[in-house]
Design goal:
The protein is an alpha+beta fold and 500 residues long. Helix content is 34%, strand content 26%. Strand 12 and strand 13 form a beta hairpin.
Length: 500
């Protein structure tokens, strides 16, 4: 047999011997007086003399992440996922049955202990055990290097194992939880109402993306998993909920990368009687506050950089960024008019070596050039604003420039983390935009927006001047936890099945 098979067999034999001791192999409960994290927090700063005088007692439980035996004196390391503490087991300090149990324990087993807190001669905070309770056997050996699991495939596929052996893994998801709490508190304090909208929809709208399709058997109805909650949230603004938000799961049937997962989380919010510039100011304050709440600072280490979420953020118009980057690359000036015509923009892309997938409007060409030439350099938070109308079917046009909409995307760390605009509230213009999108779809653009007659009907009841924004939670957490892949911040990312 292989070494792994030997270990599996030995662990099962140990489990059988635990049963022969008369122990319940899977007890129903083990009442604790303290968590390990609470013990470390409470007593971590106390001296050995103070602990010896107070003789604090505890009953706690955890997973064994270290075993050292020296005859009568033995040590365990117990973890509750947040903190670790040493456990001292003396042969003459526990019952004969408990010491026999100790000898059958394996790395990874779950146990409960009772005893007093003290410090060893090496000043290690330790529990001097008087009782040991068996709680569960780890039948599969943990990685030998228990201080870290380096195989990212295993980390993503077996997140439970990642959480057991990688102390930093849990910290990422604690930060994620605080980000969500911080966003809710920020918006709640400003009168926003949190709502829930459908995840299965007749029309997949609110973004330019390919949806997942499903079917409802009882209704015999084809449905889509939502790509965005936008059109439903704007229906609520029409209904009189002037400040509304949803922290939502979205699904897009597209590629997977370090920045893209088919299932992802977004904050989407809408504010009546506002425009996109109002949301720029709000976003600066919101992200600064949330960063301080989640990690204690709005100055964030990210790779070789430090990213500051302190206001104000940099601002640059999309076409200006593309024009300047293209001019620098080509060594000559580029006119704004070049970026507004389909043929001239495509010719510029050709000069730059940027591949443009057909069909592509002038606006899509400009956006593709921007993504190729500019995006990766936007490390500090930067509002890129004023997008071409044809790639923004739900945005309101600028009064002085019908070819441009009042829209911004926020970039940081070299990728987009938010998208916002002044909402288009003219039902006739919205229908015209939907029709243009339908023509692009017929020409092969599967991400083009579909027609939504019910939303058009809702607009006819009157949408007040409104600004809306979506913030990618996963990407924001990536920045705040110095994570390089979106899979690092999603507990159970979608993975291709592994061939056994």
């Amino acid at each position: 047999m292989t070494n792994d098979s030997d270990q599996l067999a030995q662990r099962r034999r140990n489990l059988e011997e635990v049963a022969q001791l008369g122990r319940d192999l899977y007890p129903h409960a083990f009442p604790c007086t303290d968590t390990i994290a609470a013990l470390v927090d409470r007593h971590g700063g106390e001296s050995g003399e103070a602990l010896e005088a107070a003789q604090p007692q505890t009953t706690t439980a955890g997973r064994i992440l270290g075993i050292r035996s020296f005859g009568k004196a033995n040590f365990l390391v117990l973890s509750d996922g947040q903190a670790r503490i040493q456990v001292y087991v003396r042969k003459d300090g526990v019952s004969a049955e408990d010491f026999a149990l100790f000898k059958l324990l394996d790395f990874g087993d779950l146990i409960g202990v009772e005893g007093r807190i003290f410090r060893t001669r090496t000043d290690e905070l330790t529990i001097w055990v008087s009782r040991i309770e068996f709680l569960a056997k780890c039948l599969v050996p943990l990685p030998e290097k228990w201080h870290g699991l380096s195989d990212v495939e295993i980390r993503y596929r077996q997140r439970y194992l990642d959480l057991i052996v990688n102390p930093d893994a849990r910290r990422v998801f604690e930060v994620r939880s605080r980000v969500l709490t911080g966003l809710r508190e920020f918006l709640g304090a400003r009168g926003y109402l949190e709502v829930e909208t459908p995840m299965m929809q007749r029309v997949a709208g609110g973004a330019l993306a390919r949806p997942f399709e499903t079917h409802h058997n009882a209704l015999d109805l084809d449905l889509y998993l939502r790509i965005a909650p936008e059109l439903f949230l704007k229906r609520l603004v029409i209904g009189g909920i002037e400040r509304v938000y949803e922290i939502n799961r979205n699904f897009r049937n597209e590629g997977i990368s370090t920045q893209h997962n088919p299932e992802f989380t977004m904050l989407e919010f809408y504010q009546a009687f506002s425009d996109y510039r109002d949301l720029m100011a709000l976003t600066e304050q919101m992200l600064s506050d949330v960063a301080r709440y989640a990690i204690g600072s709005d100055d964030v280490p990210y790779g070789e950089h430090r990213i500051s979420f302190a206001a104000p953020f940099a601002r640059v118009a999309l076409r200006d960024a593309v024009r300047d980057a293209a001019a620098e690359r080509l060594g000559r000036s580029v006119e704004d008019a070049t970026l507004r015509g389909r043929e001239s923009a495509a010719a510029l892309a050709g000069e730059l070596g940027v591949e443009i997938p057909p069909p592509a409007t002038a606006g899509k060409v400009v956006l593709t050039i921007f993504e190729e030439l500019c995006e990766a350099d936007l490390i500090q938070p930067t509002f890129v604003y004023d997008y071409p109308t044809e790639i923004s079917p739900l945005s309101k046009q600028r009064a002085d420039d019908p070819e441009t909409v009042e829209r911004f995307e926020l970039y940081a760390g070299g990728f987009e983390i938010a998208n916002a605009f002044s909402e288009l509230n003219d039902p006739a213009e919205q229908r015209r935009r939907f029709e243009a999108q339908r023509q692009e779809r017929q020409q092969g653009d599967l991400e083009a927006h579909v027609m939504d007659e019910d939303y058009l009907r809702a607009l006819e009841y009157g949408l007040p001047p409104t600004a809306g924004e979506g913030v990618g939670i996963d990407r924001l957490v990536m920045l705040l936890t110095d994570s390089r892949s979106i899979r690092d911040v999603i507990l159970f990312p979608l993975m291709r099945p592994r061939r056994e």
